[in-house]
């Protein structure tokens, strides 16, 4: 279900090559390989709809809606919205890719906590700088980092930019619970994706 990948670009702002992630003391999300930069206009519009369930990005076989118990505290998981009418993931565009993480609600900003379900937060998994995957998790800072040019997003604070060249917060997706199942409660808070390089 992954989109084709290509080498990371140099930063559009500073011209520097991608940072060598092996020098960081981080936990990498075990999922797809490095993603291509992405301009929003190049692909269909993102469409995470209220009522969609979520399914793990790399799941095999029939899609199984994710449950709260599938999210281990502090361990990010990449998912697609699951169109329950078709019984299929909305994987036509990387812009629909969502990163889920279960954190402590008491540590969240009020508007962030309002979008959480059982402590699980959902954000676009596509960097708002130039569209690479945000897939490096800094557990101490509770921040996601983009591999390409190290933009850093604070997940307890609405995905706010706290480092790197990105200028736009990571779009969030409100969640709710139905029983133990995670359900999308509304649209992305802003259009996901990066600006053209
Ligand atoms: S694409 Fe440049 S920091 Fe993410």
TrEMBL record:
Q: Which InterPro entries does UniProt cross-reference here? A: Rieske_2Fe-2S, Rieske_2Fe-2S_sf, Rieske_Fe-S_prot, TAT_signal
Organism equals Ideonella alba
Keyword Iron in record: yes
Keyword annotations from UniProtKB, A to Z: 2Fe-2S, Disulfide bond, Iron, Iron-sulfur, Metal-binding
Which named protein is this? Rieske (2Fe-2S) protein
The molecular function terms of the Gene Ontology recorded here are: 2 iron, 2 sulfur cluster binding; metal ion binding
Give the top-rank taxon of the lineage listed in the UniProt record for this protein.
Bacteria
Domain called Rieske: residue spans: 118-184
């Amino acid at each position: 279900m992954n989109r084709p990948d290509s080498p990371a670009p140099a930063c559009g702002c500073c011209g520097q090559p991608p940072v060598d992630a092996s020098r960081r003391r981080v936990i990498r999300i075990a999922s797809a390989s490095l993603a291509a930069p992405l301009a929003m206009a190049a692909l269909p519009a993102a469409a995470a709809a209220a009522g969609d369930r979520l399914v793990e990005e790399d799941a095999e076989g029939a899609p199984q809606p994710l449950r709260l118990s599938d999210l281990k505290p502090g361990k990010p998981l990449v998912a697609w919205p699951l169109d329950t009418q078709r019984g299929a993931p909305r994987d036509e565009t990387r812009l629909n890719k969502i990163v889920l993480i279960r954190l402590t609600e008491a540590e969240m900003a009020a508007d962030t906590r309002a979008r959480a379900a059982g402590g699980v937060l959902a954000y676009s998994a596509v960097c708002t700088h130039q569209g690479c995957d945000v897939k490096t998790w800094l557990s101490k800072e509770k921040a996601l980092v983009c591999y390409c040019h190290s933009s850093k997003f604070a997940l307890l604070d609405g995905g706010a930019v706290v480092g790197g060249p990105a200028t736009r917060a990571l779009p969030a997706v409100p969640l709710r619970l139905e029983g133990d199942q995670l359900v999308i409660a509304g649209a992305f808070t802003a259009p996901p994706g990066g600006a053209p390089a």
